[in-house]
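Moderator note: this is an archived Q&A kept for reference. The question asked for a predicted structure of one protein chain; the sequence and the answer are reproduced below.
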Amino acid sequence: MRQQNRDKVIWLFEDWVRQHLNLNTKDDMKYKNETLFKMYIDWCEVSKVRMDYNKISFGMRITVLMKKQLNKIGFECVKKDANKMTILRLSEFKKYFEFRWC
């Protein structure tokens, strides 16, 4: 039940990690904030998940998740920079989800 109550953005990141596990992807992947939001929209459609966030609330939600969950206990999964870019760190997400999946 706890798994089902997770934030949809966490689900998005978990699916993103699974997609990139077998690819020869560099560790830090930069996305424009609007590109990341488009990924969320597409993921919601494909996954048949209700889209709960608009563009602004999605960005704010990622910031909250960074501060309270994704970048805690020794993890640094997400970074934001001043150029409206979000950096997703594949190796950190892998460690984060391995820790959570146990």
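Archived answer notes: The chain has four helices and three strands.
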